[in-house]
Amino acid sequence: MDIGAYETLLVDVDESIIEVTMNRPHKKNAADQTMWAELLDIGRRIEAAPQIRAVVLTGAGGEFCSGADVSGMGGGGPTGERVHSLASMRHIAEICLTWYHLPQPTIAKVRGIAAGAGMNLALACDLLVASESARFSEIFARRGLTIDFGGSFTLPRRIGMQRAKELVLLADIIDASTAAEIGLVNRVLADTELDAFVTDWAMRLAAGPPIALAMSKRLLNNSLNATLEEALDQEGLAQTVNFSTDDTREAVSAFMEKRPPQFRGR
Questions:
Q1: For residue 143, what are the contacts with CB-CB under 8 A and spacing of at least 6?
Q2: For 27, which DSSP code?
Q3: Which of 21, 119, 168, 201 has a Cα at 20 to 30 A from 242?
Q4: CATH code assigned at 216
């Protein structure tokens, strides 16, 4: 895939897996206007790259993302021009939607702090794997702000409404074990085990049938807004598409021949 030149992101592509690293360690990877613009750009590039089959999002310097860089609040947009707050928030919404709706499975690999928009960026990923050093906070109330970056949508769907209200209204910082206890994260591992575990998951996802996985992801994302009848209808349409693909025929052949399938995404 075509990778742009970024100031605030490190991008590594290994065959069909891409790892995007937020790289402002001196600010605990707080997102300034440049990083927001670059996260949108790389998200769009990933979306348009069918050869990418799995995505890992992480942060440099032992931290994930401490949220928006508040030192730049009220400042300029990606090109330096001053923008109205509503326009800025619409830009943030566009980034959230791009990452949430990526057809490829996404994994947030979290070390250190994931706070505010940084926490909700992790929640926009399909899977969230944390090290024992991870800490999470919907810190907005401490800044006189309301929850954003899609957190009002993703957080209660992840942990339930009452726990979501507790995290948002009290703005506490919780550790990795508490995050695991309330279902915020999929796994918590020792820091030395985190990279290998996420790499294994990414490889397993990349080896899967991309058309089927993308449609399953979409079905699950839409499920809480659908009736059972609507869900069954959408499942039927998706399965009809699967039956017409080479990947489904390959899966059947591999089963009969007792070998691992080789999915091609067609």
A1: 70, 116
A2: G
A3: 201
A4: 1.10.12
